[in-house]
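Case 179 in the screening queue. Each case pairs one protein sequence with one candidate compound; here the compound is flavin mononucleotide. For every case the pipeline is the same: read the inputs, emit a complex structure as tokens, and attach any notable structural observations.

Predict complex for case 179.
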Amino acid sequence: MSFLELVQKRQSDRSYQDKPVEKEKLDRILEAARLAPSACNGQPWKLIVVTDPEKRCKIADAATSKMLSMNHFSKQAPVQIVLVEEGSNFSSTVGGWAKNKHFAHLDIGIIASHICLAATDEGLGSCMLGWCDEGKVRKTLEIPKNKRVILVILLGYTTQPIHEKKRKMINEIVSFDKY
Ligand SMILES: Cc1cc2nc3c(=O)[nH]c(=O)nc-3n(C[C@H](O)[C@H](O)[C@H](O)COP(=O)(O)O)c2cc1C
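Case 179 output:
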């Protein structure tokens, strides 16, 4: 599969089979995550892999809103990866402060992308969940109160066929040599 094919195949999967993810696949996905780039190589992240059924259920509840009809499918996924923001190194923190950019959030977006693309490469579905009750996730996973929970990523064998991607046209988002 070429890189473009991999990108075309990755999608947010919102329905999962009742089938566990093999440890070797998960290990390769985590290795792809570990190798992600970050500002000044600060690696401002901690990944908590959640497979325990009771904890998964609590995290899924924390990500679900009946009122907004959000993330009701999250209980189905056999693996969750919770991305916690950690302090970065001195260069990244000072550089971000000087340039008014919070590099850690960009870095976590990049590692999330590595995880989801690696999952696709392993024949797995994935979905990033930005909407969750951070307090409940912290409590379930014993994450210190001063840490931010940035994303939850669901992984598992999807039941969904590949769907067409709705995106802006290339000429709406790309320009050459000027804005
Ligand atoms: C930072 C971020 C947060 C997201 N949060 C959610 C979420 O809480 N629930 C959900 O169903 N999808 C969520 N998504 C998935 C997006 O809705 C999805 O990527 C987008 O609609 C494009 O569709 P595709 O991923 O299938 O290509 C999130 C995606 C990103 C990048």
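Case 179 observations:
- DSSP finds seven helices and four strands in the chain.
- The chain has a mean pLDDT of 96.
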